[in-house]
Hints:
This protein is an all-alpha fold and 91 residues long.
Amino acid sequence: MATVNMSIRMDTELKKQADAMFSDMGLNMTTAMNMFLRQVVRQGRIPFEIATDIPNAETVAAIKEMDDMLSGKIPAKRYSSTKELFEDLES
């Protein structure tokens, strides 16, 4: 099988941490990257979920606002039609 060199940029600290973890597993960076890329090709996707468990500040504020509306702490705006809603959004 022919091979090719690949160059990637990454944070220095991330590389140190990854090298240490791979070393603990008996792997080097090349082997670990090959394993990752083989799984990408086999599965046709990134082989793990990419997500965050922590909502950002804007989402946290929106959730709090909705909770406050539902509990009656702040009044919730009501609209009699979608036209009225969009007019309010555009103003």
